[in-house]
Write a structure and sequence with these properties.
With 404 residues, the protein is an alpha+beta fold. It is built from ten helices and 19 strands. The strands form three sheets. The protein has a ten-stranded mixed beta sheet. A seven-stranded antiparallel beta sheet has the order 10-11-13-14-15-16-12. A two-stranded antiparallel sheet has the order 1-2. The structure holds S-adenosylmethionine. Belongs to the methyltransferase superfamily. L-isoaspartyl/D-aspartyl protein methyltransferase family.
Length: 404
């Protein structure tokens, strides 16, 4: 479908190899997504890198801010493919993409076909002009690209069958829900308690029901949807506890906490060094209102002030003036580690026991299960449909995490 004037046979073979790799890894699960990846010339959307890099399964940096933080990228093909599978695009779908670049919009245009419509918006005029140019140059001039803050969606094209974000959100903006058709799908990289998951939701009577979720990483949202995370700094700035906007914390009560004697306990739970425990972290995040992420500078770990479960830090919990966090030690089997808890403060023992109990509950009940499911109720949902106790409250929604 595209006009591949300057697409070489070599680019075509690299593209087929990339598609084959994504099928092998399971990122691509359907024929239409495979066909779209084989068809869209990614290298023409990333003219700043070589052909080989354009068809490597990696993110391509397009723009950084003054501090060197990435603010615009063309996303990693694995993540793009996984999100397209979550999106379930069918011919004729009307789609809004928030966060442009051109490549993903071209793929969606292939999937929605000539009867569909793709609108892509980005807050950055430089990005929209580059995306518009690349889309026109590759034959996807039907994709409409506008500069706008995605927080407000693009009402002119509503209702959409799909709203798909390619930028990290920490809330579900009312506009996305309003502009979705009943039964429509929202695919959004949603950051909750320090973890970002691309979640596919279906809109049913104003409520978003999660169908699937995968861990992912995207650049942060700019504009009106930016949220204010909270941090508590310990040991100078070398140890940072990160909380979300809705959590109530007393950072003052924690000053000097790490100088209080540590209380170390072991859970008797072994984990493979390769096993991701993001689900354990999310479980703990839903069990403890004072859940946070502890990040430590190498020097604080080397000095023995902290000994977190991962090289950079890990899950932690604050309760009153006490702090407990996950640690680990090697086990007799070299590929396994044992989980433990280090706690400080006046209620260290009680907090450590509570944490150990929740880690055991996760191990016995959820560790080998299908993983979390999410439901999102707008705060404006009528009282006749209460969500029960929400696990996370964002500016506009109540998020419930289910563990089937
Ligand atoms: C990962 S890039 C998009 C990748 C792109 N979809 C592709 O095809 O590879 C994320 C984009 O989100 C944009 N962005 C950040 N905040 C935004 C907002 N509030 N509204 C719209 N776009 C935003 C950034 O300017 C950036 O270009």
């Amino acid at each position: 479908m595209n006009a591949l004037g300057n697409d070489s046979r070599y680019a075509g073979s690299l593209r087929s190899a990339l598609a084959a790799k994504l099928v092998d890894t399971g990122a691509i699960r359907s024929r239409p997504v495979a066909a779209a990846v084989r068809s869209v010339p990614r290298h023409l959307f990333v003219p700043n890198v070589s052909l080989e890099i354009a068809y490597t399964d990696d993110v391509v940096l397009m723009k950084s801010d003054d501090a060197g933080t990435a603010i615009s990228t063309v996303s990693q093909p694995t993540v793009v493919a996984m999100m397209l599978e979550q999106a379930g695009i069918a011919p004729g779908h009307r789609i809004l993409e928030i966060g442009s670049g051109g490549y993903n919009a071209a793929l969606m245009s292939e999937l929605a076909g000539p009867g569909g419509a793709v609108t892509s918006i980005d807050i950055d005029a430089e990005v929209t002009s580059r995306a518009r140019q690349a889309l026109a140059g590759t034959g996807y001039q039907g994709v409409r690209v506008f500069q706008a803050d995605g927080q407000f969606g693009w009402p002119e094209g509503a209702p959409y069958d799909l709203v798909l974000l390619t930028v990290t959100a920490e809330d579900i903006a009312p506009a996305w829900l309003d502009q979705l058709a009943e039964g429509g799908r929202l695919v959004v990289p949603l950051r909750l308690r320090g973890q970002t998951r691309s979640i596919a939701f279906d809109k049913v009577q104003g409520v978003l029901h999660g169908r699937s979720s995968v861990l992912c990483g995207f650049v942060s949202m700019q504009g009106a949807g930016t949220t204010d995370g909270q941090v508590v700094r310990l040991d100078g700035d070398k140890i940072v506890l990160t909380f979300d906007e809705d959590q109530v914390i007393d950072g003052g009560a924690l000053q000097g906490i790490l100088r209080q004697p540590p209380r170390l306990s072991w859970c008797g739970i072994l984990i493979d060094r390769e096993e991701p425990f993001s689900n354990l972290d999310l479980w703990l995040a839903t069990r403890f209102p004072g859940y946070c992420v502890l990040s430590a500078h190498r020097s604080s770990i080397k000095s023995g002030l902290v000994s977190p479960v991962l090289q950079w830090g890990g899950a932690a919990v604050v309760e009153g003036g006490s702090l407990a966090y996950l640690t680990s030690r090697p086990s007799p089997a070299p590929h396994l580690i044992e989980l433990g808890i280090i706690a400080h403060g006046p209620t260290a023992k009680r907090l450590a026991d509570h944490l150990a109990g929740e880690i055991t509950a996760w191990d016995q009940t959820h560790r080998h299960g299908p993983g979390p499911r999410f439901t999102v109720h707008p705060k404006t949902t009528p009282a006749t449909d209460p969500p029960g106790r929400p696990d996370v409250t964002t500016r506009h929604t109540l998020v419930t995490v289910h563990w089937p």
